[in-house]
Specification:
Helix 9 links the parallel strand 15 and strand 16. The chain contains 11 helices and 18 strands. By secondary structure, it is α+β, with helices and mostly antiparallel strands. It has 2 domains: about 290 residues, no CATH class; about 110 residues, no CATH class. Helix content is about 30%, strand content about 25%. It has a 7-stranded antiparallel beta sheet with strand order 2-1-6-7-8-9-10. A 6-stranded mixed beta sheet has the order 11-15-16-5-17-18, sandwiched between helices. A 3-stranded antiparallel beta sheet has the order 12-13-14.
Length: about 425
């Protein structure tokens, strides 16, 4: 779980902007004790008008973990970053404090397109802050300067191997993804593997097709039961699902075009297959059950199925997911239901979302735990995104967060012009 995070000079964020998930105590089901005496919010919701920068914070959250665990394949590969437009010559800075397997880690990194200029990783193996490693950029063709914490007890040979394989364009920890090291590197591999498994990209694996998601669920009896149960509870008139093979019709003209294209043979083979994998859904009626194909399902049903994959992970083991524009294509009752299933059935998982569904703010649980909400808007002078936590406005506990937002007291709302249009001037 994430304890706190801040970012500077990235996308629409110029000045340092912070999210903190620290709660004062076990105030509600929205809070979990991630370590002895440490309470964090399981949910975070970012509100704001279109183009305010809500999604950019999710992208930044993923970016800091991506830097930690994904090495570069070439020493000349650039670090993908989009700095704030007016400060693009300055480096980007990020900080994240997070928990992995019950241990707290604090990570700070400064980077530009070519190099990681500085990074430092601390951890708390026995509740005391100790150094994991720190590194600093020397020059373009010189080995980066790395210092390891004494508590790691690395052999000199292992430490030197890490130094040799840490290029200027990726983190020290990500070396675990490049080479095999000795057993004394165990703390590195444990953290590296935990992040890879438990911290996810925005919207999870977007490249995974719905058919793949449902096939994976179908092959696991527990996960299949969960998906069937959640589809039934969602009142979609779906009882269950099963993978099927469908015939695929390819016009001769299209077939010839594919054959002539300069595609890899494996790609051509897949495109020319006479059949395709799909999903059939069993629907219920008073006169008997019947099947409907995947292509007949609504956008809302498809969106719901996709986010069920994340929900299953979060209620069965510790995971951190970022879901952008949650609520889009979903009925608000189904959105509330999804969030409540997460809140009441997860333990040390965390869900951070952006949403336009403002009626969430009228829910008692959200109104009573205002620390889970951030309001995002662009500063009119700097055009930079700014984030304000819901409990930072000094609202009396009896005042409705929803009504206060609707009347503009909390900002983060679009200022729209007149509805009358004059094109003559």
């Amino acid at each position: 779980m994430i304890r706190d995070f801040w970012v500077k000079n990235y996308l629409s964020i110029r000045d340092k902007q912070e999210l903190s998930f620290v709660a004062k105590g076990p105030s509600s089901e929205l809070v979990t004790e991630v370590a002895d005496g440490v309470f964090l919010y399981k949910l975070g919701i970012l509100y704001g008008s279109n183009a305010s920068g809500k999604s950019n914070m999710l992208i930044a959250l993923y970016k800091v973990f991506s830097i930690l665990v994904h090495p570069k394949s070439k020493v000349t590969s650039e670090i993908t970053r989009i700095p704030f437009a007016l400060t693009k010559e300055q480096p980007t800075e990020m900080h994240v404090s997070f928990y992995a397997d019950g241990i707290r880690y604090d990570y700070d990194v400064t980077f530009n397109e070519k190099y990681i200029l500085n990074e430092v990783l601390y951890y708390y193996p026995n509740k005391s802050k100790v150094l994991f490693y720190e590194r600093s950029f020397v020059s373009e063709n010189v080995q980066t300067n790395i210092k390891f914490g004494q508590s790691l007890k690395l052999q000199d040979k292992t430490a030197e191997s890490i130094r040799e394989n840490t290029w200027n364009n990726h983190s020290v920890l990500s070396v675990c993804g490049k080479i095999a090291l000795k057993e004394d590197i165990a703390p590195f591999y444990q953290l590296y593997s935990w992040i890879l498994k438990n911290y996810h990209d925005v919207d999870g694996d977007e490249d995974k097709r719905i058919v793949e998601i449902l096939k994976e669920a179908y092959s696991d009896s527990t996960k299949r039961k969960f998906f069937n149960l959640m589809l039934q509870k969602a009142d979609l008139n779906i009882m269950e699902f099963r993978p099927i093979i469908e015939d695929r019709f390819l016009p001769d003209e299209l077939r010839e075009r594919i054959i002539k294209q300069d595609f890899p043979e494996k790609v051509k083979e897949d495109l020319l297959k006479p059949t395709t994998e799909s999903i059939a859904f069993v629907n219920h009626s008073a006169e008997g059950n019947f099947e409907t194909p995947l292509k007949w399902q609504s956008k809302g049903t498809i969106k719901y199925i996709r986010i069920l994959d994340a929900l299953y992970d979060m209620i069965t083991s510790p995971h951190v997911y970022y879901l952008d524009e949650l609520g889009e294509d979903l009925h608000n009752d189904l959105l509330y239901y999804y969030l409540n299933v997460f809140i009441f059935n997860s333990d040390k998982s965390q869900l951070i979302i952006t949403s336009q569904e403002t009626t969430l703010l009228s829910q008692d649980m959200i109104n009573e735990n205002r620390g889970v909400v951030w309001f995002v808007e662009k500063n009119k002078e700097t055009a930079s995104s700014e984030y304000a936590r819901g409990d930072s406005f000094g609202l009396h506990k009896n005042l409705s967060l929803y009504k206060s937002y609707r009347i503009g007291r909390l900002g983060a709302k679009p200022e729209l012009g007149s509805i009358f249009i004059n094109l003559e001037d």
